[in-house]
Design brief:
This protein is of the alpha/beta class and about 375 residues long. It contains twelve helices and twelve strands. The chain has helices spanning about 80-95, 110-120, 140-145, 175-190, 205-220, 235, 240-250, 270-275, 290-300, 310-325, 350-355, 370-375; strands at about 5-10, 75-80, 100-105, 125-130, 150-155, 165-170, 195-200, 225-230, 255-260, 285, 305-310, 345. It is globular and about 55 Å long.
Amino acid sequence: MLFRVRTAVVALGVCAAIGVAGCGSGSQTGSTGSGEESTTGTAQALVPKPPTTPPTTLSITKPLSKKPEEGKTVAMVTSMLPATQYYTEQTVLAAKVLGWTVDEFPYKEGEEAKALSSALNTNPDYLIGTNLLKQAVKAQLSQAREKGIPFLNLGGLPEDNAPSEGYYVINGDPTGQAQQLADWAINDSGGKANIAFFTIPALPYVAQAGEAVAARISEKCPGCQFEEVELSLQQLVSGKSPTTIAASLQSHPDVTYAIVGYGDMAVGLPGALKAAGLSGKFKVMGVGANQANIAEIAKGELDAFAMVANASVGYYLIDTLARISVGDSTAVDTENTGVGGAETWILDSPELAKEYAEAPYGWEGPENYIEQWKALWHVN
């Protein structure tokens, strides 16, 4: 097979790997419908119920100490993944609110350092990277420090965060989404979820999501089980994720919840599962729903995905730069956040999914989110 498996045992006492019979039951129906209705038959949730309707306010509410100066330039080094393109477009729009400009430097896998070097050559006021491993661009980061250019890495490793060195990891921790998904599965299964989490180690954000789900299950659900399955970034980019996931699940018939660590991994998955004879055998969930995921939830082909305010992600990136520009702290407390600090909640209702399926960015963010940002930035 083209993937590696890493197993985490989370039951009280010794538990066999997912393939062993009798290792957890869980629900094996199709779509769950509204998040207000449990499929477990239990009268009370085992853990706090995650939100299944969108929030109305930004997760950041602290305004800047003053309005940022206009005319700043930002160089953004971006991967070519579809979700990243959404974030980039919104970063450009957010920058315009402040009178700033953004130049884009897209990179292919393995060419991150080259793209970042090109960005540095333009001598921007700020740099933004997406899903960059710090070690892979070590020389370029050194150059940025020498030039005094702050660098923001969306989706980097939290432990690499080093503001004193001009290196900021922008809320690259998906713990909020991961915990919400884990809690949903715990309640839905009545505390007997048998989870296979599909991860991509090359994408730090995705890997962290898997770790967070595993930690939540270990802490809150002694009757649940968890196994992690590794895919490569190339399998994602080449469109082979669905067939790889389906092949793994065929060999693990006791799985009751399949969770993908990145929405793009599930694009085409319902079709692959149908071809493999696996439709309705387990529930399919995921981190960071994209448009294809939302459309498939609306059709009842996927069950529960963490929704992130995709259009608002770019505003969070620019907010961080704006705080740096006026000398404010970037350590702004947030709660239940997803990519870049944007708000998140669990979409598990086909009816609600239909409302967002046709929108260009799915759920863009809380109502009037742009006006809320303007107020925080002192922009009329």
